[in-house]
From TrEMBL:
<feature type="binding site">
    <location>
        <position position="114"/>
    </location>
    <ligand>
        <name>[4Fe-4S] cluster 2</name>
    </ligand>
</feature>
<comment type="function">
    <text>NDH-1 shuttles electrons from NADH, via FMN and iron-sulfur (Fe-S) centers, to quinones in the respiratory chain. The immediate electron acceptor for the enzyme in this species is believed to be ubiquinone. Couples the redox reaction to proton translocation (for every two electrons transferred, four hydrogen ions are translocated across the cytoplasmic membrane), and thus conserves the redox energy in a proton gradient.</text>
</comment>
<comment type="subunit">
    <text>NDH-1 is composed of 14 different subunits. Subunits NuoA, H, J, K, L, M, N constitute the membrane sector of the complex.</text>
</comment>
<feature type="compositionally biased region" description="Low complexity">
    <location>
        <begin position="224"/>
        <end position="233"/>
    </location>
</feature>
<keyword id="KW-1003">Cell membrane</keyword>
<dbReference type="InterPro" id="IPR010226">
    <property type="entry name" value="NADH_quinone_OxRdtase_chainI"/>
</dbReference>
<comment type="similarity">
    <text>Belongs to the complex I 23 kDa subunit family.</text>
</comment>
<feature type="binding site">
    <location>
        <position position="69"/>
    </location>
    <ligand>
        <name>[4Fe-4S] cluster 2</name>
    </ligand>
</feature>
<keyword id="KW-0874">Quinone</keyword>
<feature type="binding site">
    <location>
        <position position="62"/>
    </location>
    <ligand>
        <name>[4Fe-4S] cluster 1</name>
    </ligand>
</feature>
<feature type="compositionally biased region" description="Low complexity">
    <location>
        <begin position="181"/>
        <end position="217"/>
    </location>
</feature>
<keyword id="KW-1278">Translocase</keyword>
<keyword id="KW-0472">Membrane</keyword>
<keyword id="KW-0408">Iron</keyword>
<feature type="domain" description="4Fe-4S ferredoxin-type">
    <location>
        <begin position="99"/>
        <end position="128"/>
    </location>
</feature>
<keyword id="KW-0004">4Fe-4S</keyword>
<keyword id="KW-0479">Metal-binding</keyword>
Amino acid sequence: MPEPLPSTRSRIPGSGLAKGLAVTLRTMTRKTVTAQYPDTQPHLPPRSRGVIGLFEENCTVCMLCARECPDWCIYIDSHKETVPAANPGGRERSRNVLDRFAIDFSLCMYCGICIEVCPFDALFWSPEFEYAETDIRDLTHERDKLREWMWTVPAPPALDPGAEEPKEIAAARKTADKLAAAEAAQAEQAAQAEQADHAGPTASADADPATPGATGPATPPATGPDTPQEGES
Ligand code: SF4
Ligand code: SF4
């Protein structure tokens, strides 16, 4: 004999209601996962792809990011500037100066290629996401806004214990050490000069006349009255 179809099976009256209430009770006792945004800010992972920040001091206007962007939504303008030679007889150099850097976030697909290809660490992901606009044209953000977003970029994660120090940090430390040594030498020279000034003319006069640099006011000029002049007989 064929099994009766489900619609024709006998049901206990009110079983559907009991099932529904059971689901409601189970859900009521569970921890809620709904965040009441904007009253509650969501806890985003630090490496979230919210928006792109520009560290324009690092940008050399190499145009790699604009060329590699699959959506062509990075707009860069620049001009060339001549930098005079650092030393006499040296050659002038020319460098690119950034005039405009903008990203159209209505076209951006957050692929991160621009950040990956930038050879000078000028672009970074920021978890900032609250930049919705009512007009799509306002989603093109210029360099000042992109620079502001740099302050929301999280610090890089700590290195593993025993990991080799990145070469950028080693180079920066070397430069900082050199600068500190140069500043210390300058300060020492200034202190010595000040000490010599405080010693005054008496000390200079007492000093060995043969000593180079003992040229205080009391030192007779080399061309004084007693010095025979050229042509005198
Ligand atoms: S994230 Fe991708 S689409 Fe967006 S600007 Fe960068 S390269 Fe272009
Ligand atoms: S790739 Fe980097 S350095 Fe080159 S233009 Fe883009 S942001 Fe600037």
